[in-house]
Amino acid sequence: MQAVPATELKRRGLAAVEDLLGSGPVHVIKNSRPACVVVSVAEYQRLLAAAAPAPEPPRVDIWTLMLQQPASDGPRSREEIDAELDAQRSDWDRPPAGR
User: Fold this and answer.
1) What is the residue range of 20's domain?
2) Residue 99 confidence (pLDDT)
């Protein structure tokens, strides 16, 4: 950990930190406690990019999803629906192809 006392920063200014920044972040110590951390511009931009929230996926309403479903061949019996659901559930338990 690179560290510089606040008094040294006050006395020498930015020069007290510039030499140490080449080796990574510099911790500023005030009253024997860490007060802040100084990082390079490149590191700061990297941290900002990493902290940016991921974009939300587009929202799709239920009606759009229902309209995308293929038209059915008419009413189905309870047994037909149960059989289709059972077939789909068995696919959930299978590992994806290629694993």
Assistant:
1) 2-51
2) 55
